[in-house]
Design brief:
This is 3-dehydroquinate dehydratase. With 147 residues, the protein is α/β, with parallel strands linked by helices. The protein contains 5 helices and 5 strands; from the N terminus they run βααβαβαββα. The structure holds 1,3,4-trihydroxy-5-OXO-cyclohexanecarboxylic acid. The site of 1,3,4-trihydroxy-5-OXO-cyclohexanecarboxylic acid has 10 residues, from loops.
Length: 147
């Protein structure tokens, strides 16, 4: 079955207990389970991966890029966490592959600290979903899979 990658960056393993006023009470396992259900409705398999390490996220994007060229992967739903605001390496990784990447932020980063207002990911993303809570993952899947 063709897949879609749900990729989460640093600290998103703490969802559910981390700053619930910003990120809500759903755990990462809840979010991933929901993504699997939504993807299955479209006939896709959601592969879920979270890492607190920049290099592992880069490797995951490269792998999705290779799978995209082999028609095995439809896209990437990516919440890069704080690397959004710092990582030229993730920007370059996305730019270096063909697979469409949708950037998701649970919180409205533009209503928060100034250092969260700039994204290195947005210029290379197929689209960006910000401030819609964990529902953003579903919206990204709808965009990528509803053909
Ligand atoms: C986040 C926003 C980032 O600024 C923050 O560093 C995160 C989560 C979000 O989903 O709202 O870790 O990407």
């Amino acid at each position: 079955m063709k897949k879609i990658l749900i990729l989460n960056g640093p600290n998103l393993n703490l969802l559910g207990t981390r700053e619930p006023a910003q990120y809500g009470y759903e755990t990462l396992a809840d979010v991933e389970e929901n993504c699997r259900k939504v993807a299955a409705e479209y006939g896709y398999d959601a592969e879920c991966f979270q890492s607190n390490t920049e290099g592992s996220l880069i490797d995951a994007i490269h792998k999705a890029g290779r799978e995209f060229t082999q028609d095995e992967c439809a896209g990437v739903v990516f919440n890069p966490g704080a690397y959004t605001h710092t990582s030229i390496a993730l920007h370059d990784a996305i730019k270096g592959v063909e697979v469409p990447v949708v950037e998701v932020h649970i919180s409205n980063v533009h209503a928060r600290e100034a250092f969260r207002h700039h994204s290195y990911i947005s210029p290379v993303a197929a689209g960006t979903i910000i401030g819609m809570g964990t529902k953003g993952y579903k919206l990204a899947l709808d965009f990528l899979l509803d053909k």
